[in-house]
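REQUEST ID: PR-0412
SUBMITTED BY: lab tech R.K.
PRIORITY: routine
TASK: structure prediction, single protein chain
INPUT:
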Amino acid sequence: MTKKAADARELGILVRQNIRQARRSATWQLGAAAIDRLRDLTKTFGFSLSLGDVQYMDGGWYITHPGLMRLSRRRRCVGIRVQQVRQFCDPVVGRWVFRATVYPSPRSKGFVGFGDADPSNVSSLVHGAEMRVAETRAVNRALRKAYGIGLCSVEELGWASRSSAPAPPGPRTASANGSNGNHNGQPRLRDRLCLLIRQHQLDAGLVKAYAADYCGTATLRDASRDLVEAFINDLALRAAKDRDGLICQLNSYSKSQEVAS
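STATUS: complete
OUTPUT:
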């Protein structure tokens, strides 16, 4: 048997193993489209479910950092260079930005990816490790570009990441509105918003006015959880990258507050 035939045989075995494992999962309810997507990902990149290369969450497949690193070894990646983007970093508040460059071949000019992390966009479980999270995100993005992977990585999700496993039964104490309730063990959105306001020294009243306008509601309390979460993610990104521009936009709401009073 030639090496090409042997590789094709091993890949076929991996496809069947992945599909069998996915269908047996007690927490995943996969339709035909998800199975077809898994089959395609396995054939194209050789991802393994048993090794944790990919995960199924929120109705879609996501690549993991270990899966990307294993792929880079299989594809004989020449090297990865990671640099801190110092002008956007602030160790005092735990904000870090890294630039990663992946060289998949000796003659490659490199594929660049950026990753940022601060207390507002990482899980509470890794608070204090924002620098390492930012570095991992940068490497993941560069690797995805280098190998043409359209999947987002789990480590890039930040606050958007949710467990696909069903929540354990119990009394519902969370508010139906997004600003006050816990979600899958994550800190409350209101706490995240307060942290952002303190961290970037923003005017709380203007932020709330901006949030209501962003969500298209009379008050922030009336907005759905998804809208509030989207607003907080956007606010964190703007505050980190263009605080002066954000302050200018917030100040535009001070006039409307004066008129209302």
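NOTES: Helices lie at 3-24, 32-45, 65-74, 130-146, 189-199, 204-215, 225-241, 243-260.
REVIEWED BY: pending
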